[in-house]
Write a structure and sequence with these properties.
Oligomer: single chain
Number of helices: 8
Largest sheet: 8 strands, mixed
CATH architecture: 3-Layer(aba) Sandwich
CATH class: Alpha Beta
Structural class: alpha/beta
Number of domains: 1
Shape: globular
Low-confidence stretches: none
Helix content: 25-40%
Distance between the termini: 28 Å
CATH superfamily: Vaccinia Virus protein VP39
Strand content: 25-35%
Order of helices and strands: HHEHEHEHEHEHHEEE
Radius of gyration: 16 Å
Strand order of the largest sheet: 3-2-1-4-5-8-6-7
Length: 235
């Protein structure tokens, strides 16, 4: 059976061109570096990653995967953007990050190859960039062990998120490359909750992420109206 790769070539090309700047903390990837500690602390608080088998789906240049490996996890990062993966591998070598590997493979293909293999699966800022997010959610559910945790982060679809995440962040503040997000692809929490339920994932916790452009500070809150995260557990 032939499984088409669930990725948009234009989306991959868009990120591959930026790959060499992934680890420059003052580049357009600065927001990812700034929010990474907040995410990692939240994940670790719910399901400590040390000594666990962890999969990072849509790992990009490896910012979260690298950090989880440094917390003592055995990490596999997967992505379909070749250049970003090469950057992740190069950084792991240069930084001598222990126990992290990277593979160019889709979540769906890996789910067929290694079902039920991971204690924790993370999928951050990726669902809004694929043609079929429900398929990715189902693959993440298939990859995690029973009782294991799957963490998602994405962007809500409403007028406020359009103003803040797209118009504000991409055009006015120039925090993100223009064209990073398309409004129609953004995902409401109720939609993501539906994908999770259908895949056998139980929603345990939600958190929102807020940003103050004046202080340039991020924090986690109960406000899921723009950026939000789900912590789910396989039933």
């Amino acid at each position: 059976m032939n499984h088409p790769v669930n990725a948009d070539p234009a989306e991959l090309a868009k990120f591959s061109d930026l790959a060499h700047r992934w680890w420059d903390k003052e580049s357009e990837f600065r927001p990812l570096h700034q929010i990474n500690p907040l995410r990692l602390e939240w994940i670790n608080g719910l399901s400590p990653v040390a000594g666990r088998q962890v999969l990072d789906v849509g790992c990009g240049g490896g910012i979260l995967a690298d950090a989880m490996a440094r917390q003592g996890a055995q990490v596999l990062g997967i992505d379909l953007a070749t250049k970003a993966l090469k950057v992740a591998q190069l950084h792991a070598l240069e930084a001598q990050t222990p126990d992290v590997q990277y593979r160019e493979i889709s979540a769906e293909a890996l789910a067929l190859e290694q079902p039920g293999s991971f204690d924790v699966v993370t999928c951050m800022e990726m669902l809004e960039h694929v043609p079929d997010p429900a398929s990715v959610v189902a693959a993440c559910a298939a990859l995690v062990k029973p009782g294991g945790w799957v963490f998602f982060s994405t962007i809500n679809r409403n007028p406020k998120s359009f103003l803040l995440a797209i118009v504000g962040a991409e055009y006015i503040l120039n925090m993100l490359p223009r064209g990073t997000h398309e409004y129609a692809k953004l995902i409401r929490p109720a939609e993501l909750a539906g994908y999770c339920r259908a895949a056998g994932l139980v929603l345990r916790h939600t958190r929102g992420m807020e940003y103050n452009p004046l202080t340039q500070r991020y924090w986690l809150s109960g406000d899921t109206s723009v950026n939000y995260m789900f912590a789910t557990q396989k039933s």
